[in-house]
Every structure is written in C-alpha cells, then in structure tokens.
Amino acid sequence: MSKVLVVESSVRQEGSVSRQLTAEFVARWQKAHPQDQVTVRDLARDGVPHLDADLLGGWMKPAAEQSAAEQAALVRSNQLTDELLAADVLVLAAPMYNFAIPSTLKSWLDHVLRAGVTFQYTAQGPQGLLQDKRAFILTARGGVYAGGPLDQQEPYLRQALGFIGITDVTFIHAEGLNMGGDAAEQGLAKARKQLEAVA
Ligand SMILES: Cc1cc2nc3c(=O)[nH]c(=O)nc-3n(C[C@H](O)[C@H](O)[C@H](O)COP(=O)(O)O)c2cc1C
What we know:
alpha/beta; Rossmann fold; five-stranded parallel beta sheet; two-stranded antiparallel ribbon; 7 strands; binds flavin mononucleotide
C-alpha cells in the first residue's frame, strides 16, 4: 500500500480545471491501486500561514527555549511536513496565477523545504533527504507556456522538489484554457491523454 498526498491550490472550489484533473488522476490511480491511501491537503480551504518569526524561531531553538507562539507555529508546520514525509506519491495541483504558482503553494513549499528534515547542508552542498517519492504536477493555465522561456512554474517546481530529493517528477499541463475557440478543449484533451497514460 502506498500513500498518496494530493495538494490542491486553486482558489476555486467550483469550475477549477486543476481540481478536475486531480479528481480524474485520483480516480484512475485508485482504480489501478485500490489499496492506496489518499490524503488531500486543500490550501484554499485550509490556509497555510506565511513563514513568520514565530515559525523561524521554533525551527531554530531547542524545544525548552521555544515560546508558546513558536510551539504553536511548529505544530501547524510539522503537520504539513509530516504529511509529505509519509507520502510515497505527491500530486500537486498548480494553477498559473500571474505567471507563477499560487502564493498558497509557495507558502506550503516554504514549510516543507525544511533544513534538517527534508534537506540538509553538507560539505558538498545541500542534499535532499526525501527518497523514493514520485510527484505528478497538474497545471492549469489560461495561455500556453510549456517548454518555453516564460514557463516559470515547471523549472521552479522541479528545482524546489529536487532540492528535497524528489526528482521523479511528471508534469501534465492543461494549457490555453482562456484562449477562446477550440484552444481550451484541445488543451484539456491533451492533458487528459497524458493523465491517462501516467495515472
Ligand atoms: C488571479 C489569476 C491570475 C492568472 N494569471 C494567469 C497567468 O499569468 N497566465 C495564464 O496563462 N493564466 C493565468 N490565469 C488563468 C488561470 O491559470 C486559469 O484560469 C486556470 O484554469 C486556473 O486554474 P483553476 O481552473 O484550477 O482554478 C490567471 C487566473 C487568475 C484567477
């Protein structure tokens, strides 16, 4: 049995293409792997705080020296990191907002890229501590960016996940969703075809 962690980040609960794709991915995955356990972390429904001084203080200090506020910040952050540590498969939904990932997803990454837990510094440079995890990233974009210099989602997410040791990463892009004509339909059909092949 594997554990699958789905991270949703569209602000839309209704009409979201990335949520539709994660739902289709999970349905297919569960059909192929009925024993697997799926956990959903919805960053829009259940907001993740930005990094703040309390959390950084909690990370830096031994437990005995932490204030109540630092301990509370740690509890919340640890939950996010523990979910990722426990997962074998990560499914990230990444709508494109203003050429990048949603700020909530950036905040989630700020919690889970954690020194001493998901990566460590060594004499040879930083080293990812997560092993044997696979990631599937489902993007939804109004325009078309994949493979071009303006795609700031895929390179960033590859770098951030690779930094913590997740290097087996598959992207599925649903593009052209706001371009009118047949573009949305074609973009979605292409993404679904890829999804069928990998999930
Ligand atoms: C605030 C906001 C910013 C957006 N910025 C971009 C953008 O920079 N480039 C783009 O191609 N689409 C952009 N879009 C369009 C979304 O990527 C597109 O609607 C996508 O389907 C959103 O994901 P969702 O359907 O899962 O909510 C933006 C949408 C919103 C709401």
